[in-house]
């Protein structure tokens, strides 16, 4: 365990610490969904570090300390987390959660995030969405759903998010402090896209509800939107 706290890895330090054999989070017993989620959330960004330190009203401090001291700090310090540490977290989630199979079965990342953010740590939802003018929905992450697009062979994240929001008639009610996006998931035999290019920046201008935008014809503030 690493008792101190370490900042997220950036630039050359990220390459030096995270590249090579025996790097990342070691997988064991269908843990890939959790390994990938934890690596994405904490290895190179501090946007969710409040999960590690903040004493939320409903926060389980034991789970918080396991997450911080056995997973995130070793990942940032040495670039490696062994499977025992992740299993320790999975055992705690099984004990305190609503599902008995967190230690052996593969789960959807959204199920894991909802459990640890809402029920274990008591964090407020990160996203507010509205669909077709109906009531707002609160959630912690957004999973991309979309039909096959023939013109998208090797898409980037920006394209996938825009297509998904458009097809579902969704809007962001406000700018999120953190926008966790789950890529399209399919089985071993079929994948909609063989590759997805990461978008290093995400433009959410057209995804925001009631956001003032420029008319593409005259340049004034737009009053109508064509999907």
Commentary on this structure:
Helices cover 34% and strands 8% of the residues. The radius of gyration is 19 Å and the shape is globular. A three-stranded antiparallel beta sheet has the order 4-3-6. The chain has a two-stranded parallel ribbon with strand order 1-2. A two-stranded parallel sheet has the order 5-7. It is mainly alpha-helical and 227 residues long. It folds into two domains: 11-120, Cysteine proteinases (Cathepsin B, Chain A, Alpha-Beta Complex), CATH 3.90.70.10; 127-222, no CATH class. It has helices spanning 11-18, 32-42, 50-53, 61-78, 83-96, 109-120, 157-167, and strands spanning 24-25, 80-81, 127-131, 137-139, 142-143, 170-172, 181-182. 18% of the residues are buried. It has seven helices and seven strands.
Helical fraction equals 25-40%
Give the H and E element order.
Answer: HEHHHEHHEEEHEE
With strands numbered from the N-terminus, the spatial order across the biggest sheet is 4-3-6
What would CATH call the homologous superfamily of the largest domain?
Cysteine proteinases
List unreliable stretches of 5+ residues.
Answer: none
What's the helix count? Answer: 7
- Looking at the overall shape, the CATH architecture of the largest domain is Alpha-Beta Complex
Given this structure, which CATH class of the largest domain is correct? Alpha Beta
Main pleated-sheet profile: 3 strands, antiparallel
Question: What global shape is seen?
Answer: globular
Termini separation comes to: 52 Å
Query: In oligomeric terms, what are we looking at?
Result: single chain
DSSP strand tally: 7
Structural class: mainly alpha
Sheet-strand content, in percent, reads: 5-15%
User: What's the domain count?
Assistant: 2
CATH level 3 topology of the largest domain: Cathepsin B, Chain A
